[in-house]
Amino acid sequence: MLNSKLPLWYQVAQSLRAEILSCRTTEARRLPTEAALANQYGVSLITLRQALKSIEDEGLITRRRRLGTFVNPGALAQRPLKLLGSVESVFAQQASEQTELLEIGGDVPVPSELAPPFDAGARVSFFRRLRRDQGEPVSYALNYVLLEHGRRVTAGQLGRAPMTQVLRRDLGVVIGRIENTLEARQASPEAARLLSCELLSPILFFTGVSFDRADRVIDVAQIHYRGDRYKFSVGFDVAG
Q: Model pTM?
């Protein structure tokens, strides 16, 4: 059902994007004609062409005069992140990413929306990073680290490794457990700008809360993953 509060072309573009990404193939795939798509979505040809231009500019499709519109297989590649019960396995998968440190904020109060996990009156250091794979933005990460540890984190360390690895390997912090959640969200203006995706397009929003052995929260990570470039899979070892 179309939403009257959003431009028609934008809604059609989002629907087409989702349909294309749900049907992956290694071969170029031809879409129905513009007239057929316009009829399918109940919009004019002008609106349909505006939607196609949006996803063409994104590199998802190619329109060829007199031949039709084709899906670009290379644009469909997703970077998998497999969660196999070991933080080291996740670190290894992120080794090829290039990290740009956007901001370091020292000694700031815990944001109100994150107050429950931290102890009352806790102060944190704040970090913002953008990760790229082969030059393309794939994730935007924010970390709120307990001040006693965060003030020791350097830009050089974060350029080489994820925060959890920096805390454990470089700072010697003992992490007792990590609680992770993953949910689908719509890209905020900031996330859309940094990840080079459409405003309100689907993203994967990851939250990781790290605790020390005394069960104190020492780090809260919030990571925005481009939904069209990342997928998550989870594996379990089952004892015989």
A: 0.65
